[in-house]
Amino acid sequence: MSATARKQAPNAEDIRARKGGEPLVSLTAYTTPMAQFMDAHCDFVLVGDSVGMVLHGLKSTLSVTMEMMILHGQAVARGLSSAMMVIDMPFASYEEGPQQAFRNAARLMAETGAGAVKLEGGVEMAETIRFLVKRGIPVMAHIGLTPQSINTLGGYKVQGRDAQADSVLADAKAVTDAGAFSVVLEKVPQTLADQITAEIAIPTIGIGASADCDGQILVVDDMLGFFTAFKPKFVKRYADLGEQAESAIAEYAADVRARSFPAAEHVFADTTPAKGNKK
Ligand code: KIV
């Protein structure tokens, strides 16, 4: 069923069942109004730890905290009724081991109402994913470029070229076997993304991967042109709202300095208006 015809938000098993079907549509969101704009159009909305970079001006996602994720998760939840909400586990909230991951994943879900968590990592996270799924926490995995590991990956580089391809394929198989209901493939070569999509049984969600993934995700502030510090090659700008916002603010500033705002229609008369007249 397409997102526009749907009434109830899908759950993790509904998303899993979309393997090979109509492409899954997803964006990140961090606030109530943005979640409301995308609710009818997305199958799931990700409260991404990209919030640290696009809304809080952080240099990377590494210093995003559980408290930030919970605050933004609660805001997004208020704006959704027909899309599923998935929430990112922030750096250092799950890597110590399955118990730490369970404690923090359960807290994220309980305090925000998210239907699943997303965490970064492949083979090395399989045990943790298995532990969470067996205890009732649906997990979306994230492999390829994993931004929480930029310091060991040497930056925001494509992952899985040439000799690296086997290790990304092994990650995809490991998270599938561990019980993840879907997997984000970030910045992997198109042919490798297509091979993974063909070889694993769960939906692949591409970001800088391939149009033939089972779904796509983008950071909303990238695709709307609000985040302009840099633009990855995989981002398509669907609007330039940052430019529009700046020119609207410049116009307002000029109006205030020229005393042309507020105008007559924005101010109040000193006599009580007649009944029915709200001026
Ligand atoms: O945090 C995020 O926005 C993400 C997406 C890029 C998939 O993980």
Write the layout of secondary structure elements.
Blueprint: H1 12-16, E1 24-28, H2 32-38, E2 44-47, H3 51-54, H4 66-79, E3 84-88, H5 98-112, E4 116-120, H6 126-134, E5 139-144, H7 150-153, H8 165-178, E6 182-186, H9 190-199, E7 204-207, E8 215-218, H10 220-223, H11 241-257
Parallel strand pairs: 1-2, 1-8, 2-3, 3-4, 4-5, 5-6, 6-7, 7-8
Helix pairs in contact: 2-4, 4-5, 5-6, 6-8, 8-9
The structure holds 3-methyl-2-oxobutanoic acid (KIV).
Largest sheet: 8 strands, parallel, barrel
What's the shape?
A: elongated
The ligands found in this model are: 3-methyl-2-oxobutanoic acid
Query: Mind telling me the CATH class?
Result: Alpha Beta
| Poorly predicted parts | none
